[in-house]
Design goal:
Layout lengths: L2 E8 L4 H17 L6 E9 L2 E9 L8 H12 L14 E7 L3 H8 L7 E8 L8 H19 L7 E13 L5 E13 L5 H16 L10 E4 L9 H4 L2 E2 L4 H4 L20 H18 L5 E8 L8 E5 L8 H11 L4 H8 L30 H5 L3
Parallel strand pairs: 3-4, 7-8
Antiparallel strand pairs: 1-6, 2-3, 2-9, 5-10, 6-7, 10-11
Helix pairs in contact: 1-2, 4-5, 8-10
Length: 382
Amino acid sequence: MSYFFTSESVSEGHPDKVCDAISDSIVDAIFSKDPEARVACETFVTTGLVIVGGEITAKPGVDVDYQKVIRKTISEIGYTKAEYKFDAESCGILNTIHSQSRDIALGVDKGGAGDQGIMFGYACDQTPELMPMPIIYAHKLVKKLADIRKKNPKLMPYLRPDAKSQVTIEYDDNHKPLRVDAIVVSTQHDGDAKQKKIGEDVREILVPSVIPAHLIDKKTKYFVNPTGKFEIGGPHGDSGLTGRKIIVDTYGGWAPHGGGAFSGKDPSKVDRSATYAARHIAKNVVKSGLAKECLVQIAYAIGVVQPVSIYVDTKGTGLLPDVELAAIIKKEVDLSPRGIIERLNLRRPIYAKTAAYGHFGRTEKEFTWEHFDLVPVFKKYA
């Protein structure tokens, strides 16, 4: 019996992703001046307004022009017109940032985790990116819409920054992807755009440029702007918050999530760094041939250097028992926060790029947690 699984993605112009981009751009701005800084920056956006808050502690003399960083980020996303009711030049900005709690700093200063929590990493052989297929194609659809809007606007001249996608894949009972069953695309558009034209362009321009033809058939269903109109969008259409798209950011619901968001956090926060490390491990386990599918859970206690636990589940595809794989990981990989930060080179201004289109399954050189440098370590156990 076949079954169906669906994942969604959202574009960089989605209000929650605007917040993620602002928070991560602030992390980058701080890190460009002080790589040892502690940053936990949250953002809220609504019609004509940005509020940033949180805790930032940097060395004396570090000064960041938050207004400039925020307006530049909003402009790069594409909110540059007053008719959007939220634009880079005219929006109000309220800054309520202060320094990190000294109680938290006590544990972090000695190399401990910046918080307690559970973090998951996952990889599988469904796609070349070693990611579940639904989330990969969902990301690619909204990323392609943004690329068309910015680089080739004549193709779809009515596009505005906000967009969402959803892809349903049909699988056989061995978890092998068979076909695309349904595609949902909702894209913000100019007021004079015709829905029929948008639907035709999605089917004839967008989808063929992203999804391989052999996965599409006569039964594939399309839903384009299913409400019938999407002129009002972005922070004017809905308020946005940092960290509200954690399933979009990871595996589209195919694998568990520990609950902690990434954007706006420096890597002493294991919510971010240990989740990257868990993906790094899972991906290298699959690439090394030790399993076709791998889920890794890592748990931490605040201020404690080493993980409380490491758990591995290869869903029955592992060459070795899962408990042995967990022991190998514990032996071979330094999973202290400091060890993760150094191995993945995380104290750099690399985070704005992560704010949209997923933190995993990417090829940019900054995404060190996607590299295969642990393959030789794991292959010796194969």
